[in-house]
Amino acid sequence: MDTPLPSLNTIAVVGLGTMGTGIAEVLTRAGREVIGIDISEAAATHAVDALSASTARAVQRGRLTEQERGDVLARFRTFTDLQAAAPADLVIEVVPESYEIKQQIFRELDGIVRPDTILATGTNALSVTRLAADCARPERVLGLHFFNPAPAMKLVEVVSSVLTAPAAVAAVTDLALELGKEPVAVGDRPGFVADGLLFGYLNQAAAMYEAKYASREDIDAAMKLGCGLPMGPLALLDLIGIDTARTVLEAMYAASHDRLHAPAPILRQLSEAGLTGRKSGRGFYTYEAPGSGTVVRDALTPLEGRQLVAGRPVRSVGVAGSGTMASGIAEVFAKAGYEVVLAARSQEKAEAAKSRIGKSLSRSVDKGRMTAEAAAETLDRIVPAGSYDAFAEVDLAVEAVAEDLEIKRQLFATLDKVCKPGAVLATTTSSLPVVACARATSRPQDVIGMHFFNPAPAMKLVEVVRTVLTGDDVHATVREVCGKIRKHPVDCGDRAGFIVNALLFPYLNNAIKMVQEHYASLDDIDAAMKLGGGYPMGPFELLDVVGLDVSLAIERVLHREFRDPGLAPAPLLEHLVAAGCLGRKTGRGFREYARR
């Protein structure tokens, strides 16, 4: 830029929908003069009313004084004509995601604002470069992508095109920091970081639902309980707007040609039917009224407690394995009052696993979660055994041995011999075909997947995986047992990754590709997903915790089953695993960790 940049004190916000109104609130409360512009007088009035209501709540909560509230409201003026932007130091447009509409606004602004005024687009899907190239001064155009709701969400993506002046980027980055936000610098590609990762995952979830692989309630519950997400993907699509999601995905697909970004047909069908989510009152779910967040029953809502088939009685449980997962599952069953046989390849390994459970129970006592008496009773219910022959009388056998199909098949062949007729045989596999375990027995109808999540005592989710051969009464038995051990069961079919891993690992793989392509740094991607997506951990934090070798194995299974080129493991992940950098357990993965 030829002239020095002014301080950004007067800011015009063009488009006073939910996002524009939220940005205006953030700016006025931070002391900026805000010119709100919308062609609709009703939208402008609504924006003033919304700011009035939110600042009134802030006064009630003691976050603002009445004087401060009056000052905030005085700093917000609304207009219906773009000419009002003339005195602005910065203009932020948040109008609908359309090149035609945005380009028209920028062309008009070229003739209205000063030569040194920065023009920012709030797009999350369109090319900033294409918008800038049409302007008289492309060097002053950039992307400033806030997240909804803008007053609450900390992340702001600052998007540069190849034409953007560094001084403009520096000015808006400083502004974001002054607003109390966390700016992340990214390049110009559809979806940027947060939405680039988020929308691929949402699209996969929509496709999973469309394929009738799992119910909408089970998909959403699985991702909330299995990954700690604040909302399930289908509920989130309804919140974002299904039409908006489709627009973002179409832009991403046009740029990437990655089939994972090709919008699932159901998104087009719902959009064209006007079923765009909460704003229309119906999307994947049905809502009380347009704009309401309250879900109401519809034809797809499952009936509570409806069990068409009676389950088998389960009094005693066998757990096969001696690792963390096996001991965690044994602890869960013993706490729920079941008699548990914990069997491993040797008596010594089984005793060590029981000892680990004892330490876990002691920690629960120390934290006041259970009494010492209850802990002792729980531990007494667990009988360690050095042979699977000890499973002769159990009603349910759950294996948690190595994630190796041959090992599991051999174990199921053994269980087939030692377990009594009518016993339910369950595998905790997270990625292998359950039916392959079932076919290793003479009673495949008794075999089912029961995928617990680590750590089993803390994690509420169990994926209940039926094969084409699983008996209805076996399925009913496992769902009943899940209720008794206070876990939330979700039903899914026998295919790689089930619900959680099939949605989680492509997202993690795409994050690795972003780093591999030098699009964004590990730290910026982790920050973007925590601050912009509400994820409890960023993708690289999570990969290092899970283990890069485990992650690679799951990604290979998904790629082999679904044959989608977009699911091929990122070469960077393969290189790190080959180098022995497996995450926290080896002291180095995507990051380095202090040796303990």
Automatic annotation (TrEMBL):
SUPFAM superfamilies: 6-phosphogluconate dehydrogenase C-terminal domain-like (SSF48179), NAD(P)-binding Rossmann-fold domains (SSF51735). Keywords: Oxidoreductase. GO terms for molecular function: 3-hydroxybutyryl-CoA dehydrogenase activity; NAD+ binding. Pfam families: 3HCDH, 3HCDH_N. Residues 191-287, 497-593 form the 3-hydroxyacyl-CoA dehydrogenase C-terminal domain. Transmembrane segments: none annotated. The keyword Thylakoid does not apply. The keyword Oxidoreductase applies. Pathway: Lipid metabolism; butanoate metabolism. Residues 10-188, 317-494 form the 3-hydroxyacyl-CoA dehydrogenase NAD binding domain. GO terms for biological process: fatty acid beta-oxidation. Belongs to the 3-hydroxyacyl-CoA dehydrogenase family. This is 3-hydroxyacyl-CoA dehydrogenase family protein. It comes from Streptomyces himalayensis subsp. aureolus.
